[in-house]
Amino acid sequence: MFCVGPLTILGSIQNGLTGDIQLLAVKSLLDAVASTAFAAALGFGVYSSTCRRPSGRRSADGWLRPPSVACDHLTMLFAWLTVGLVAVVTLFVALHVSSVMTVYLGATTRRPRNVSDQKREPPPRVARSMGELAMLGFRRLGETELTVPDLGVLGPLLRRQQRHTAWIMVDEPATTTAVVIDMRPYVWLETWLADASIVHTTYGGGEEIDTSMLRSAVARSSIADAYRVQRVLVDERASHHRVPHGVHSMGDFLRNDADYRQRFARRYLRRALIVRQLAPAAVVLAVGLLMVYTSLPWL
Is beta strand 214-219 parallel, antiparallel or unpaired with respect to 198-203? Predict the structure, then answer.
């Protein structure tokens, strides 16, 4: 019960992919409460005792009926706890998937707001990324703030919102913008060409996309390498899509950002949604249903 369960699997996947330990923390709390209840009801020996069950007989309806042994009540208690735990985990998974779909479906209409007048100071890791960009010739243009639903364990239940600040910089020719996000070491380089096609390169994660109107690349070694890849892609596309147009103010950036979100935001989020959110949720629900199925003969 403690070592193999939906929260164990979902928590490990979420912690490995996003660094979020909320599910594992909730599981630790549930395990502590359950072990305390077992000890109170059955004595301290519950921590070390084992229960041997002889093989049962298969009844006419096909179920394997457990024989009457001394530990039947304990086995039934575990079965009911398993069903209850699966029900709770299913509720949280459903709430999480609901929030993920809210983020995905609202990607085309969600807009950041300009908070440049607040002159927000970047945290240390963002400041390091901005320093690397400054060495490449970028200058600070402003800041934006984006509000999205909280995707944590309790976020959907409490309807909490997360606010993320992004620091916007632009290179010396004023054709490529750099968006440095406070969630993790993540830099988004983007160039808009004259025919409304877009080229962007990300450092810190992302997806490779190559279509006629959107070219997305990922650089993993350094910000300088990401900027080099971005310039190569822009030069390749300029011959077919005309030269880049300039970004001289936050107004220019916000107009371009709104156009990108309207046309490409869902396309860019689709793979991450399926691989990192929906697929793990489906696995957890499948494991939960299997646990309930195997517990039915004991109820």
Answer: parallel
Phi and psi (nearest 5°) for 210? -135, 95
Angle in degrees, CA 148, 222, 121, rounded to 5: 50
pLDDT, one tens digit per residue, over 141-157 is 999 999 887 766 565 56
Inter-CA distances, 165 with 19, 187, 202, 230, 241, Å? 19, 13, 17, 23, 32
Confidence (pLDDT) at 265: 87
**Radius of gyration over every alpha carbon of the chain, rounded to an integer in angstroms:** 26
DSSP string, 246-276: ---SHHHHHHHHHHHHHHHHHHHHHHHIIII
Q: Tell me the pLDDT of the chain averaged across its residues.
A: 78
The whole-model pTM stands at: 0.66
Give the Cα separation of 225 and 229 in Å (integer).
Answer: 6
Helix (H, G, I), strand (E, B) or coil at 121: coil
Cβ atoms of 224 and 136 within 8 Å: the answer is: yes
